[in-house]
Amino acid sequence: MEKEVILKCTKMCKSFGPTKALVDVDLVVNRGEIRGLIGENGSGKSTISSIVAGVLPYDSGNIEFLGKPHKPADMLEAQQAGISMVVQEAGTIQNLTVMANIFVGKEERFSRGLFLDKKAMKKEAQQILDEIGASHIRADDSIMRYNFEDRKLVEIARALYEKPELLIVDETTTALPHKGREVLYRLMKKQAKENRAVLFISHDMDELMDNCNAITVLRDGRLIATLNEDEMSIPKMRSLMIGREISDEYYRTDLDGSFGEEVVLKAEHLSAGEILEDFSFELHRGEILGIGGLSDCGMHDLGKAVYGAVKLLTGKVIYKDGTEIKSPAAAVSKKMGYVSKNRDIESLILSSSITSNVALPSLNKLQKGVYLSAKDEEALTNEQIKEMSIKCENGAQTVDNLSGGNKQKVVFGKWIGNKAEILILDCPTRGIDIGTKVAMYKLMYRLKQEGRSIIMISEEIPELIGMSDRIIVIRDGKLSGILERSDTLNEHSVIECML
Ligand SMILES: Nc1ncnc2c1ncn2[C@@H]1O[C@H](COP(=O)(O)OP(=O)(O)OP(=O)(O)O)[C@@H](O)[C@H]1O
Description:
There is one protein chain. The chain is an alpha/beta fold. Helix content is 33%, strand content 26%. The chain folds into 2 domains: 5-242, P-loop containing nucleotide triphosphate hydrolases (Rossmann fold), CATH 3.40.50; 263-335 and 421-498, P-loop containing nucleotide triphosphate hydrolases (Rossmann fold), CATH 3.40.50. β7 (111-112) and β8 form a beta hairpin. α14 (374-387) crosses α15. The protein is globular. The relative contact order is 0.11. Bound molecules: adenosine-5'-triphosphate. This is Ribose transport system ATP-binding protein.
């Protein structure tokens, strides 16, 4: 049977100044399909989704949606045409309630004369939250009460409320806890089963294989291939993305989980956030200490607590020289670095340049008398652009303009540039393409060998097993087990500890 086309892009082009983000892209998405869109960081995936969803205009080419010309002036217009999108980073508005976030721009639907029928709004918002399996989120609560993961679920509710013909999911899964990912997969499958369509952007090869009916590969803004279900395989997808074969070995290959005796950081009886309670551990010189658990087990709070970024309810964090780490400033002065899971809000100054972001923790080092050495700042940044393969015009480009994965590389680069001795990495490879991931793991291993210490908080069990010397598993805010690196350690043993 002939497939019914829902979206047809022909020779779509988009440039940002000298950067050719999309070059003559022809993309056809059919009804009933979950289409994966893959490519390295900066290959143009989000540019396509932003154009189709009305966030960005295109320069030339042609788009048809449901057989009609499609050139939406904004997101609302694209939504009215039948396209909704859930994005990578925070897409909710602070200071509003959950329901106001769900119905933003559509409030008139509930207006009764001069007033807003908040009761009806609440009822409808709660209904959609319940429908997507997020009943724990209350429609009339302030959005600020909810964490990053729950806010993503609110965005999903907002996107699905309209029953869009095309749902775009732009790297949302890594922001969600495991349960939330399952919810999203189920909703995507439902969308396809109802003969609508999904455009699904992800770097996770397994979830792409499990959920997509076809995969489109981009490289440097050009469409390289579209693989149908029977042609899809991980090695093929990887090599089409990167343009060369890459090995299956992502992680360090040694089984030696040894590290120095010296304790460089000690956490004693920490309680913080809503769940973390009476938690203690020691980090050693040259150790990669993995921290795992379900997303809401308290591990993200632990990262913040160790960096002095949240108020401790009990306990203390002590650096090797006896200094108590009570603030990020104290942490930075002891050469500690922190990569937050909530990258755009907590780890970057989006409106500043790559150089300003990279140089920020190294300002003391870069200061010459009362002046900052612009030349040194630039050299430091260029080194990190090279080391982390940051795709950008130059260090003067504002971080806001970088692709998601390249922003993550900037965060990593700023702490590597600062020669941090202790790195607290919360989901460090989030949004990072497979080629760069391999490079990052190599870098982490090199840092370990140089005697630096890493706390790696991760929701990816293979990453924890693949990189850690020891894995501390947290369950419901408390220590549930410590697992040592060995050839018998497997996903099952970690999961057993987590649940
Ligand atoms: N507003 C902007 N201004 C300047 N350059 C931009 C802008 N938005 C995107 N770019 C550039 O366009 C290119 C494509 O970016 P895009 O965000 O589409 O990549 P991506 O494939 O989604 O990457 P990632 O996997 O890292 O999310 C990148 O080089 C990026 O730096």
